[in-house]
Amino acid sequence: MSRDAPELPSEPRPRHVAIVMDGNGRWAKGRGQPRAMGHRAGVKVVRRILRAAHKAGVEALTLFAFSQENWKRPETEVKLLIQLFVRTLAREMDAMHRNGVRVRFIGDRSGFPEPLRREMQRAELRTADNAGVKLSIAVGYGGQWDIVQAANALVEAGEPITAEGIEARLQTAGLPEPDLMIRTGGEQRISNFLLWQLAYTELYFSDVLWPDFSELEFHQALAWYAGRERRFGRVPEAS
Ligand code: IPE
Ligand code: IPE
Ligand code: MG
User: Fold this and answer.
1) How far is the CA of 67 from the centre of ligand 2 (A)?
2) Which one, of 45, 65, 14, lies nearest residue 203 by Cα?
């Protein structure tokens, strides 16, 4: 848990880690509690893993907090999640700013209430010049939507559709591609997260539910990553 002071795993370390924070609902259900409790517990883990990523020298952290498809959940759950985002932003912003975190939100914000959109923008402006961890929080995000909006931006600018052009217009433009994607909660799927960006990402699936995900488990993922041979279509190094 957060009391762990595990040793940092070996190198190479990922520059950019993307995480699908899944399993809040099941965590709560397992305790006979409403799903809301799982989401509240999940928020605390964000702080823990952000700190762990910083300590491990990770440059960029992208967290999937709310997908476009999550709008299909019952209205009460959606409302609760939005409330939780607003409160968490208000509570955590000072500390994040102090720690040099640069916060950005990626996704389609149009469905969110105006006060939340304002808070998101405020957080982005306030932390824009920070030189610490580049934290991207995906809310209302869909990987297909991201590619479509990038292509549309190119069309509107009268530019040809090229891979470089799309990359430059994706919501993650300017960040290195994710080296490691972690999905907690046992499901082995992408669920419309970063589709374009994950082309060559190493994929790590953990059965641990997000509210239980610890610094130790994060380090296990980093250690697993360090043992991967990334080939990008080439032949192995030694041959
Ligand atoms: C992930 O946990 C958080 C969000 C998608 C907002 P879930 O709410 O999907 O939890 P499970 O998968 O039902 O356990
Ligand atoms: C993916 O989790 C989205 C987030 C973690 C925000 P879901 O729980 O929504 O994914 P599915 O529905 O199991 O694919
Ligand atoms: Mg889920």
Assistant:
1) 7
2) 14
Strand extents, DSSP E, the chain? 16-20, 60-67, 102-106, 134-141, 180-183, 202-205
**Residue 192 appears among annotated catalytic residues:** no
Q: CA 164, CA 158: separation in Å to the nearest integer?
A: 15
Q: Find the ligand nearest to 65 CA.
A: 2
Domain ranges of the chain: 16-226
Task: Quick: pLDDT tens for 29-65.
Answer: 999 999 999 999 999 999 999 999 999 999 999 999 9
Distance CA 136, CA 103 (A): 6
Question: What is the rounded CA–CA span in Å between residue 202 and residue 124?
Answer: 28
User: Could you tell me if the CB of 20 is within 6 A of ligand 2?
Assistant: yes
Residue range 16-226 forms a domain whose CATH class is alpha beta
4, 70, 130, 192: the active-site residue: 70
pTM for the full predicted model: 0.96
